[in-house]
Each structure stands twice: as C-alpha cells, then as structure tokens.
Write a structure and sequence with these properties.
The protein is built from eight helices and 19 strands. The strands form five sheets. Strands 1, 2, 3, 4, 5, 6 and 19 form a seven-stranded mixed β-sheet that branches. A five-stranded parallel β-sheet has the order 8-15-9-10-11. Strand 10, helix 6 and strand 11 form a beta-alpha-beta unit. The chain folds into two domains: 188 residues, FAD/NAD(P)-binding domain (3-Layer(bba) Sandwich), CATH 3.50.50.60; 111 residues, FAD/NAD(P)-binding domain (3-Layer(bba) Sandwich). It is 27% helix and 29% strand. It starts with a strand and ends with a helix. It is α/β, with parallel strands linked by helices and 306 residues long.
Length: 306
C-alpha cells in the first residue's frame, strides 16, 4: 500500500506526529529504530503532567496511542530513502521497502561525548548536560563543569542557579579573560586550570573528577557538553541539507518542518538540537498539521483536475 505519511523515528516528535496524523484519518507507518537518546535518564522533566515519567514508560504509552489511532509501527532501521515519480520510497536495512506520499523524519541526534575515561559510563546519570532537565534533582549539590569549548563559561554561570558549589574545570576550553574571570569569582565559581583525566564513580554515583596531576576533586555530579550530531544518515540520500553549527550538525528546514526536498519534513532534535521532549512533541504536532494540509492541497488539486 501507499501510506499517506511514513514517519522515521519513534521519539516524542515522531510519535506525536503519528498520533496527530492518525487522528486526521491519515494512513501512517512509524519506523522506530528503538534507540532513544534519553534511554539512560531516570525521568523526563518539564513535560506538564508527565514530570518524572521514565523514558521507557513514556515510549510505551506513546506507541500505544499511535496504534490506537490506526498507526502501524515497525521496529527497524531505515537505510535509505528516495524520491519517486509518484511519492517517496523508504528502504529498511533488512531490504523491505515502503511507499509513502510524504515522509516525516524525526530521527533525533547523537551525543558525541568528550573522550574522558568514566564519562560515557555515567552519561545521563551522574554526568549531565541540561540544567532544565536535571538541575532540580541535583540542587544544592557539588557540581563540576568540564570545559570543552567557550560555552563552558555560560554553563558554569547557568548551573550556579541550582547550587552555590560550582567548580569549572577548564580542561580544553579557552582560558577565561580578565572580565570573565571576575564574573566567575563574583558568583563564587572556582576555576581549575588543570585538565581532567577521569570521571570517578562509585557504582552509579559520581564521586568526583580526577585531574592529570592525580588530584581528586570531590563532586556529586558532573556537567559535560556533547557535540550534537543530527541522525541524518537515511536523509542524505534524499538530498537534505546537513548544516554545520557551533554545536554539531543539524538538518535545515523551515520553522514548520518543511524541507527543501518536496514531500519531506523534519521535526524534533534532528533539526532543533536544543529541543527538549515536550518541545519536540510540539514540533511533531505542528509538522503533522502542516503535512495534513499539504496532502489536502494535493487531494484538492487532483479532484479539480478530474
């Protein structure tokens, strides 16, 4: 069959879009690679009425809503996609092919982490990245910011909102200038110039940061910025533009999700790296509404043509 919309990606953006399209009586296929970015997080926050819900529970409930409104779900990975004369074709890594009038890519992003021993193992638990996602849970605790770019200064001042005990480990970030150093000192943020050699943990709990000279600086949680890389692999074959940014890569699109490739739309972290779960869900809904109107316009044109 030819689906009205094939949604690639089963995160909050993809599921939200699939639900909205199902409620619009569209035929929808959701292809989910089952590799959610937030899988290691203890809970989702800043999502009204869903605060603290474990990511696995959120995903299970979302998938149930997709199928409730007629959407079909396939657990698989998309290898390539191609534009045809009569629509778009999606090919899975197992060779199966599916045809759709439109494609909505909500493939998310991958966090490329600093190469520091112990950091990856604690990512999403004791090693954090977003204060709005995790700040309240570590309020008042000893926080360490590992600097890998100039944004570390901003992160240090931002996390200071949640605790008075912030240490900025300069690591590979540029040295603060005199004005920036005064701003750090003014808010009691200690600067450590030595590079970090290891994130130290006791089981699932971070206990500190070890410097290259062997010094252990006790910390309750560590903050590290990842490079945010759009999961654009299956989209490149469609000719979508992948843009380099100061923080990684993203797929170019209009604010409503429409791309320069006819019939192809995007939503969520693949095009908005800073979007949280709730804002990605909202973007999926918006893209779905615009997609539905796009399909209606095509239906009207075909009917008028006889």
């Amino acid at each position: 069959m030819t689906y009205d919309v094939i949604v690639i990606g089963g995160g909050s953006a993809g599921m939200s879009a699939a639900v909205a399209l199902g409620r619009a009586l569209r035929t929808v296929l959701l292809v989910d690679a089952a590799a959610p970015r937030n899988a290691r997080a203890g809970g989702i926050h800043n999502y009204l009425t869903r605060d603290g819900i474990p990511p696995a529970d959120f995903r299970a409930q979302g998938r149930a809503e997709v199928t409730r409104y007629g959407g079909q779900i396939i657990d698989a990975t998309v290898a390539t996609a191609a534009a045809l004369e009569d629509g778009l074709e999606v090919t899975l890594t197992d060779g199966r092919r599916f045809h759709g009038r439109r494609v909505l890519a909500a493939t998310g992003l991958t966090d490329e982490l600093p190469d520091i021993p112990g950091l990856r193992e604690q990512w999403g638990r004791g090693v954090l990245h977003c204060p709005y996602c995790h700040g309240y849970e570590v309020r008042g605790q000893a926080i360490g910011i590992i600097g890998t770019s100039p944004i570390a200064l901003h992160h240090a001042q931002l996390w200071r909102q949640w605790t008075e005990d912030v240490v900025l480990f300069q690591h590979t970030a540029p040295e603060p200038d005199a004005s920036q150093a005064r701003e750090l000192a003014a808010r009691g943020i200690r600067l450590v110039a030595e590079k970090v050699s290891e994130v130290v943990a006791d089981g699932d709990r971070v206990t500190g940061v070890r410097l290259i000279d062997g010094t252990l600086v006790a910390r309750d949680a560590v903050v590290a910025a990842s490079r945010l890389v759009a999961n654009a692999g299956p989209l490149r074959s469609l000719g979508l533009e992948v843009v380099e940014t100061d923080f990684g890569t993203t797929v170019a699109a209009e604010p409503n999700g429409r791309t320069a490739v006819p019939g192809v739309w995007v939503a969520g972290n693949v095009t908005d790296p800073m979007a949280q779960v709730v804002s990605s869900a909202a973007a999926g809904l918006q893209a779905a509404a615009m997609l539905n109107m796009d399909l209606i316009a095509e239906d009207v044109a075909r009917a008028a043509a006889g």
